[in-house]
Design brief:
Strand order of the largest sheet of chain A: 5-6-7-3-8-9
Number of helices of chain B: 5
Order of helices and strands of chain B: HEHHEEHH
Number of domains of chain A: 2
Number of helices of chain A: 10
Distance between the termini of chain A: 38 Å
Radius of gyration of chain A: 22 Å
CATH topology of the largest domain in chain B: Arc Repressor Mutant, subunit A
CATH architecture of the largest domain in chain B: Orthogonal Bundle
CATH superfamily of the largest domain in chain B: Winged helix-like DNA-binding domain superfamily/Winged helix DNA-binding domain
Number of strands of chain B: 3
Order of helices and strands of chain A: EEEHEHEHHHEHEHEEHEEHEH
CATH superfamily of the largest domain in chain A: P-loop containing nucleotide triphosphate hydrolases
CATH class of the largest domain in chain B: Mainly Alpha
Strand order of the largest sheet of chain B: 1-3-2
Largest interface: A-B, 31 and 23 residues
Oligomer: heterodimer
Number of strands of chain A: 12
CATH topology of the largest domain in chain A: Rossmann fold
Strand content of chain B: 5-15%
Helix content of chain A: 25-40%
Number of domains of chain B: 2
Radius of gyration of chain B: 18 Å
Helix content of chain B: 40-55%
Structural class of chain B: mainly alpha
């Protein structure tokens, strides 16, 4: 990406946003690098969609800055939006159009529209040209939305809950299309989801948003390398949560406790031994377990 | 098509799952020297995982001398591919034994009893499997 210092495709810094009394985003700072599949995770209402709306220039930053391709999307929306493919959670497609009409209609907005690619996707997704959008299933609507989001080969693909409300088969199709976009063309993808398994599968960087704040912002590899799940046993019952380094969440009673912690394995094992305890089980937690631990901490 | 199952609810990093399963297939001969592996793009799409995950797994297998990539032509299983180094074999087995040691302590076994039981199980498995059981039991490669 040319013309700005950080090289980031998207850069948000110190972004806060209030709706009335509710603080929807609070001091959010994030960067998305070229070629990343950036997973934005959080509960419904955590602020993911509000953040995406800022990236699209639909909201002005109340405080902080938003840059996409080094440009403020509010001041130059055309420059930004022409390079973004966007699929909204509610798809908002013109229901009265037919699939073929939707394709021609969208094509008119994008000089880079790739007709051959669009047609290939339409066939792969099994969308009949003459079918009315209104008559499509949820999964087919999502695929139609994805088709018009990627057929102009955008530099940045932005998907807001792409598989929300879809059955597992349609979800797999959408994810596969995302993987293909990245694999074949090295595009950057930002996608939000509350389905952590799918984020774990395809994202290489994860930001967790909780109550409008960034609760975690790390490459997937680093998340997996630094988070551990242990079952620890002590010779004597422990009435209170054990005081150990890096513990994010602990549950248990008596002699046995389960903990999820962040940090270096050997240092933690040493600390456990120092308390007279023994690690009886150790595993790598799923992204979902890490999220739940952090959110309930 | 390469039979690999990636399970995101297991917790193990996906690239490691991929590395282990490919090693296992090489160890068991399901992947033979000279066999071509799918390209990063194809495997990422087949498994619906991030292409970088495949790149990382292939790189690790390449560094271990198990596979090699010919520029512009493809990725192949290396000739005398020995999936596990001595240190690695030791590490894999040690990790398994650690759980056995902890479990046997919890169940109140002495180390002598555990060793006896280990011999007994070895005997049972040999009898069950017949002469073929004398071969390396590769089921341990999976974890």
């Amino acid at each position: 990406m040319e013309g700005h210092e950080s090289g980031a495709v998207m850069e948000v810094s110190g972004l806060s946003r209030r709706f009335g009394r509710k603080e929807a985003l609070s001091d959010v700072t994030l960067q998305v690098q070229p070629g990343q599949v950036f997973g934005l995770v959080g509960e419904n209402g955590a602020g993911k969609t509000t953040l995406i709306q800022h990236l699209l220039g639909a909201y002005t930053a109340q405080s902080g800055t938003v840059r996409v391709f080094g440009i403020d999307p509010v001041y130059d929306p055309t420059a930004v939006l022409s390079r973004i493919g966007y699929l909204s959670e509610d798809r908002d497609l013109p229901l009265w159009m037919r699939v073929g009409e939707l394709m021609r209609y969208t094509q008119a907005f994008y000089p880079n529209w790739d007709e051959v690619y669009a047609e290939r996707l339409r066939e792969e997704f099994g969308l009949p040209t003459s079918a009315r959008i209104k008559a499509l299933s949820r999964g087919e609507k999502a695929k139609a939305g994805l088709l018009v989001a990627v057929a102009h080969r955008p530099d940045l693909l932005m998907l807001d809950e792409p598989s929300s409300g879809l059955d597992p088969v349609a979800r797999q199709d959408i994810l596969a299309a995302v993987v293909r976009t990245v694999a074949e063309e090295g595009r950057t993808v930002v996608f939000s989801s509350h389905l952590l398994e799918e984020v774990e599968r395809v994202a290489d960087h994860v930001a967790m948003i909780h109550e409008g704040r960034v609760a975690l912002d790390m490459p997937m590899d680093a998340i997996k390398a630094t988070h551990h799940k242990y079952v620890i046993r002590w010779p004597e019952p422990r009435p209170e949560r054990p005081d150990l380094p890096g513990v994010i969440h602990a549950a248990g009673e008596g002699r046995e406790w389960g903990v999820l912690c962040e940090g270096e394995e050997q240092a933690f094992a040493q600390a456990v031994r120092a308390t007279g305890g023994e690690i009886v089980e150790s595993s790598v937690p799923t992204l979902e377990a890490i999220f739940v631990a952090r959110v309930s901490a | 098509m390469l039979q690999i199952a990636i399970n995101e609810s297991e917790g193990t990093p996906l690239y490691l799952q991929l590395v282990r399963q490919l090693k296992h297939q090489i160890a068991t001969g399901r992947l033979a020297p000279g066999d071509e592996l799918p390209s990063v793009r194809v495997l990422a799409q087949q498994l619906v995982i991030n292409p970088n995950t495949v790149v990382r797994a292939y790189r690790q297998l390449d560094e271990a001398g198990l596979i090699y990539t010919r520029r512009g032509s493809g990725t192949y299983v290396a000739d005398r591919a020995s999936p596990y180094s001595d240190a690695e074999r030791r590490r894999i087995l040690s990790a398994r034994l650690d759980t056995v040691v902890v479990e046997s302590r919890n169940l109140g076994y002495s180390m002598e009893q555990v060793v006896d039981l280990l011999r007994e199980r070895d005997h049972v498995l040999r009898v069950e499997q017949g002469p073929a059981g004398q071969q390396e039991d590769t089921r341990d490669g999976r974890s």
